Amino acid sequence: MTNRPFRWSLVGASDIARAFVGPAISAQPDAAVVSVVSGDLARAQDVAAPFGARGHDELTVALSDPDVDAVYISSINSAHHDQALAAIAAGKHVLCEKPLALTVAEAQELVDAAEKAGVVFATNHHMRNSVPHRLIRDAIAAGDIGEPVAVNVRNAIRLPPAARRWRTTDSAAGAGVALDLTVHDADCLRFVLNADPLTVVAHTSSGHMTRVGIDETISGSAEFVSGVHASFVESFVTGHAPTCLEVFGTEGALIGTGIQSMSPVGTLTHVGPAGSRKIDLGTREDLYVVGVRRFIEAVRGEAEPPASGQDGVWSLAFARAALEAARTGHRQTVGQAR
Fold first, then answer.
1. I need a surface site. Which of 55, 119, 158, 287 has the fewest CB within 10 A?
2. pLDDT of residue 273
3. How do residues 87-142 score in pLDDT, each as one tens digit?
4. Where in the chain is CATH 3.30.360.10?
5. Cα-atom radius of gyration of the chain, to the nearest Å?
6. Which one of 3.40.50.410, 3.40.50.720, 1.10.645.10, 3.60.21.10 gives the CATH number of domain 6-124?
7. pTM for the full model?
8. What percent of the chain has pLDDT over 90?
9. Are 229 and 241 in contact (CB under 8 A)?
10. Cα dist. 290→174, 285, 295, 305, 310 in Å?
11. How confident is the model at residue 3 (pLDDT cuts 50, 70, 90)?
């Protein structure tokens, strides 16, 4: 495999496949997109054209192609599980968008199936590839802010019209902000704190952009095994303030502004007894270029993927617990299938 390009099929002719992951694959010196799959053949061919790839309207065609080493899945949320399971059964490595499935049990089934098949199965939690997020994690581990006590994360955006479609109208497809943004923030919290969540309480609202009953804004708090408390807000209907990730410790704080993003943007500030200082973030790579490179390295046994399948199970478990807490009005345990 190392003597030829690492070849991908993009399953789902999505905007993220077209604008982020496909170009990230092409940016690798030893990788290429060879096919794109969509239920809409014309759309598959349109997304495939810039990569010199083939367009298909049947997943089985791509999965039976010996030229395909791995698939990137970015179809509607409800399709992730079955498509990933089929890819794993075909012996393909899988990089899957969040959420891995609509239920925690189905997500765990994918992790177990990949382990049994001996293929790499990873979650596309792209913010693990972000310089400020890695610096926050390292600073906490080094004790730079003393003992972490609380975290605040805000990922409140204005969902672009082109991205709304099923995300705002179709519960069966996996609509709502929790399965779109809360999963990412949950993974960020686990990543920077290097700790798992225990319980979560939350509230949701709907009706401004989404169909009534489909969460467009969610806010809540969670307790982690380390004793840290985290507050979170995600929304489809705001976007008038920068995103943030703020960690407060006994000896200082780390303030990330504008960093909850698909792009390498934003600033990071350390605040302590001596005052505040902006941290030099150096040269930052495209988050998806980093993620694809590390995925390929994982397949070759040279590294671990940025976010494993099990990390994707955890982020889905957090989002599902938050939605259940909002539905019942009671704090929920963040449970996994295993």
1. 158
2. 95
3. 999 999 999 999 999 999 999 999 999 999 999 999 999 999 999 999 999 999 99
4. 127-287+316-333
5. 20
6. 3.40.50.720
7. 0.96
8. 96
9. no
10. 28, 7, 9, 10, 20
11. low
